[in-house]
């Protein structure tokens, strides 16, 4: 995955300066980072407190909750195979839990209202054998909030999803993960247990420059929420998949579904939304998707921008200190702004469809002016002619209609309504009539058009 086109020296220095600052000011033993551009690794770098022992792109670190994104992909695979529906209650496939009324969709998006953590003791620093059953993970009061009302992050929720995967696949979560994601994507350095070379986890004293080793426990049932170890190279492979899709693992439409916000965020909690196993944040004029992760001794972040085709991963071995999410976002921004993506050459459509060509151009919803454009694969794009308005792209359907893909009209049907002589009368979009002229007298406008038509003040 080495890039054939290297970054400019000034860009590489800016990236190195950013991670060097993060390692120094964050007081972490080591930090490794890498950037993906156009599907290829364009840069990697690291910093360390021990001369001659800097980690590289093949050094494993714990990635914490980035593990959840892998678990979500496995659940979406089950859905795509018809083995479950996202609106199914958990009880349908995994009976006997105290959270059976929660839907799979709610568990994926952290809107099931479940507790954020397991009952004591602190699950990240104790072996999974302390919680041998799901009842030990959920405790006596697993649900703290009404299901479906808001986003409330829940680690036990992803334990339930891991157990769901095991129940439907008839195999351990780690085995399914390796077979269905890691092996197809060539991620042979991503494992549930550390494999050399790997970093050791450290706690750095907040008020003194001294360190304490952190334990690295096997999390048992909690593994689907945060068990994995990985490298920058492997995680950038995963980022490339999340940006593009890969039919060997998950089709593009399902990957795009993971990015869609699933529930309102908690007020004042964090400046972003959560899809299905993916976090999304808006940074200036850029949308970043990915996930952050932490376990005692480790911090991790993965962000990618679909529009810029740039991804970044930052891994470090300290319990607290560097703001890895911020650093990864900065790395994306440095590359995207210093070396903006060069667009593909404009090319005309391969053929002309006269019937579709007759639909393009201005249309009016009442007096609101819009323009309809023809895109590839018989898709249509609707945009306001001026100012803000409801823009949408529409995917062509076999029955001659179109389905909205985004925004206000997502899922809505656009169809052509014809007069008795076969000419186009108007466009029907979710019952809204779009006509060729504002309140066209010759079209079937709901409510009709006033006799006498348009008039001035004197009339």
Structure description:
The protein is globular, with a radius of gyration of 26 Å. The longest helix is centred in the N-terminal third of the chain and has 18 residues, at 9-26. 41% of the residues are buried. By secondary structure, it is α+β, with helices and mostly antiparallel strands. The chain has 12 helices and 19 strands.
Task: List strands and helices in order, with pairings.
Layout: H1 9-26, E1 30-37, E2 40-48, E3 61-62, H2 67-80, H3 90-93, H4 104-108, H5 134-138, H6 155-169, H7 173-185, E4 202-204, E5 211-213, H8 223-226, E6 229-230, H9 232-244, H10 252-259, E7 272-274, E8 279-283, E9 286-295, E10 298-305, E11 310-316, H11 324-338, H12 354-357, E12 361-365, E13 368-374, E14 380-384, E15 392-396, E16 402-404, E17 413-418, E18 424-429, E19 432-435
Antiparallel strand pairs: 1-2, 1-11, 3-6, 4-5, 7-8, 8-9, 9-10, 10-11, 12-13, 12-19, 13-14, 14-15, 15-16, 16-17, 17-18, 18-19
Q: Biggest sheet, open or closed, and with what strands and sense?
A: 8 strands, antiparallel, barrel
Total number of strands: 19
Side-by-side strand order of the widest sheet: 12-13-14-15-16-17-18-19
Strand content: 15-25%
